[in-house]
Every structure is written in C-alpha cells, then in structure tokens.
Amino acid sequence: MKKWLKISFSLLLISILIIPLAACGKDEVKNVRIGEVTRSIFYAPQYVAIEKGFFKEEGLNVTLTTTAGGDKTMTALLSDSIDVALVGSETSIYVSAQGSNDPVINFAQLTQTDGTFLVSRTKIDNFSWDQLKGKTFLGQRKGGMPQMAGEFVLKKHGIDPHKDLNLIQNVDFANIAPAFASGTGEFVQLFEPTASVFEKEGKGYIVASFGTESGHIPYTTFMTKESFIKENNDTVEKFTKAIYKAQQWVDSHSAKETAEVIKGFFENTDLDLIETVVDRYKSQGSFATDPILDNEEWDNLQNIMDKAGELPKRVEYKTLVNTDIAKSVMKK
C-alpha cells in the first residue's frame, strides 16, 4: 500500500510539473529584433506599441536597435542581424534589382509622407522656394528616400537640385545634422526632433515641410525577408496587430498624450518639444492610421525614384508588398 501511495504521489508530482510546462509552450513568448533606420519622433506609433505593451499583449518580446541609414539597416536584415526592418520602401526595390532569391517584403506601413523639414541657417519671414537658388544645400544620402523626395519637391518648384544649387550629399546620414551645426550649408534637410531642437537653440529655422509637398508615399514601412514570413506568419501577424493598435491609439489621442508615452525614447528632448513635433506630424497626416501600403502609394514612390534617376527597374506592387496580413488584422 505504501509503495502504491509513493507511485501515485510521484505521478501526481510529475503531472503538476508537466502541466505548467505545456502551458508555457503554448504561450511561448517570441523574440523579434527590429532595426530602425533612425531614431525619430516620426516613428511615434512604433514607440507607443512598445510602451503601451501592445507587442507584449501579442506574446512578442521586441528589441529595438537604431541602425543609422537605409544601407546599414538593409545589410542588418539580409545578414539576419535583425528580423524586421523599419526603413524606406525604396530599399526593398534596390534589393530586388540585385536579383535576390529571398526578396524583402513590405508588410506594414508606418508613415505615409516624407518626414523631413527644410531648415535655413538664417530666419526667413516670407519663405519662397526660389530663395534656395544659388545656395549651398546640405541634402540627404544619394539614393535614399529623403533625398529623392527632397529632389522631387525642389523640381516641383522649378529648381534643378544639381544645377541651381550647390548640393552636398556625400555626408553620412548620422553626420548631416552635426555638419550643419558646425557651419556646412545654408539650408539643410532634417528629421525631427533635430529640426525643432536646432530651431530652439537658434542653430536653424524650419521654413518648409517636405512631407506636405511630396504627397502620400510608403516613406517608412516594416519589412522582412519573404522566408521569415513563410516560417513565422503567425508572428508577423501578431506584430502587425500590435502596430495597428498603436496607429489607432496615436490617431485617437492628443499629441500631448503621445508625447508623454514616448518621452523615454527621447531623454534629451523636452516634453513640450516632443508634443510640438507629434502635433506637426499629425496635422500633416504623416502617421499612417492603418498598416496598408496601397498601390497608388507604391506607384508614387517609383515615380519619385524615377525622376531622381535612382529607379533600377519598375517592380510590380504584389511582388514586394504583402497586404494580406494587414487586411486580416484589420478585419479581426
């Protein structure tokens, strides 16, 4: 009898141990490594998804790395240093042009306009685009979306960036702002919060928005390799669901509320400045309110690349864009 009791107790103990382990397996947390092309308030919904716990709600543990530049971000993705890249959609076209056997797929759009601003070294009360003619313009990296969108806007206003300006675009992405601060250029194209920080410190003055001038484009999207989606479709769907929640949250909350949530990502920036920038992006419709990258935006992107002389070849929308996941998430 004692022997039977010992066996029964042992079996009970084993079952007690096994049940939690089985439950853990069912609710296993999935790690996802994100590489963002830069740290910017422009990506507010991403930070909201992290801070509000939307990724955790989906059983995802995300780690975020700033990879400083589209080329570096794409290299990190292709070398499996990250799982998901937050970068301009043009990078997926460049990879496709090189004949990749594992194409990079855009699956969730985060921003839908250019996120840069034209900053002047001197204050201009009544700015007009023709005031750039003959000036030294510190632009973004050649072939990158900021530079191409910038050139698109300049041409729209009758300015040939390569003939009417002294165009500088050989400065590394991370060093553009410091170069301007040290005296290079009379105008510069900058992301936030750097543009507003410069204005607050008297280093420059925001005179125009490239976002309001360039129209809707898939400026920044979450993308990953096709193989990753095939092997981790459930994870990508959960990731997209978290982003959609964040997009809806930002859209339905004030700039002040959003600023308070994301302030930890911008420790050296005043809260009121973060609020100002969020409000600026919201008012010009820069934050996408859902993760769908539509066909019209894709065509606009390639038109801008083509006019900049940077489009290797046109790529069909469905070849590099997957909206099935985003549509499924929105239906649910």
TrEMBL record:
GO terms for cellular component: periplasmic space. Keywords: Signal. SUPFAM superfamilies: Periplasmic binding protein-like II (SSF53850). Its main location: periplasm. Coiled coil: none annotated. It is found in: Periplasm. The keyword Signal applies. Belongs to the bacterial solute-binding protein SsuA/TauA family. This is ABC transporter substrate-binding protein. It comes from Cytobacillus dafuensis (Bacillus dafuensis).
